[in-house]
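Chain A, query sequence.
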Amino acid sequence: MARPTSLIATKGIELLTLGTPNGFKASIILEELKDAYGLQYTYQTIDISKNIQKEPWFIAVNPNGRIPAIVDHDNGGLNVFEGNAILGYLTRRYDTENRFSFAVDDDDYTRAESWIGWQHGGVGPMQGQANHFVRYAKEKIPYGMFRYVGETERLYGILDAQLKDRDFIVGPGRGKFSIADIALLGWARVLPAVGLTMDQWPSLAAWYARCLARPAVQRGFKIPSEPQMSPVEPLSADNLEYKKAVDAAKEKYDYKYTSP
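Chain A, predicted structure.
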């Protein structure tokens, strides 16, 4: 595809994204809304390795220069950035039957907000730093790997406990598939990037498989293209090497898994 240089749509939702854990939040909810209500949208691939997200036209959409971002051309060209803000906006405006969200006066609306906030303030930053220290840092720092992978494990232990007797994170009974789940799916998908698998969290693994069975989730994971990072299973040869490095860092600092 040609390098994006401006917005290309004049109506509907325009998504600017890449296949990352945060990018998948927007693409999955848009695919779910398309199935449920026929909502159509346009998307453009923003290759962050080429710094497209730092160009003036993109900064006009998201001053922070990050993906994902959307423009709602049917709502005065409103710009929305940050994956979780996009989840909230799209469901408030277009999920009129609350199929993937909850009514504002429903206590589950607040429960969903709590888990989405937990993802935004906990899982995203901790797992993101784990990815950096394990995969991308030029200098391999055992303390950084031990610290952030350990915190990632602790957080997923909390989610596993929440899902012990539930199908989905929030909702009556055993729960319903909602934006609380969508906020976490992309991050759960790339656990192997830091040498982790879901084997130690059976309820988490069952939840992920349940969500992944949804056609819209499958399609959302392929937008704007097939993701480059490994899926949850199995650990690739590269990810096994990352696991060895993480295990060595844990041993150096006498790490013991605990959660919460």
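The radius of gyration is 18 Å. Residues 107-136 form the longest helix (30 residues).
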